[in-house]
Write a structure and sequence with these properties.
Elements: E1 3-9, E2 15-18, E3 21-23, E4 30-36, E5 40-43, E6 46-49, E7 56-59, E8 62-65
Antiparallel strand pairs: 1-4, 2-3, 2-6, 5-8, 6-7
Length: about 70
């Protein structure tokens, strides 16, 4: 079994989603999430939005795993 750890930081009152699921932020705005990483290509959309929705940032890392 393989896992991918996604971590980062933002403003403490921001909203963060990874693959469409809300991520709970620590009081200082940091976060850490462990994702299962099956074989194949995985797109992992990450979105952060300010509390007032005036600014958003999005990235979509693409990870490939192959087991022989």
């Amino acid at each position: 079994n393989t896992e991918l750890i996604v971590y980062g930081s933002t403003k403490p009152d921001a909203r963060v989603t990874i693959q469409g699921h809300a991520v709970r932020l620590n009081p200082d705005g940091t976060f850490r999430l462990r994702l299962a990483l099956p074989d194949g290509v995985q797109e992992i959309p990450v979105r952060a939005a300010r509390a007032d929705d005036e600014e958003t940032r999005e990235i979509t890392p693409v990870v490939t795993r192959g087991t022989r």
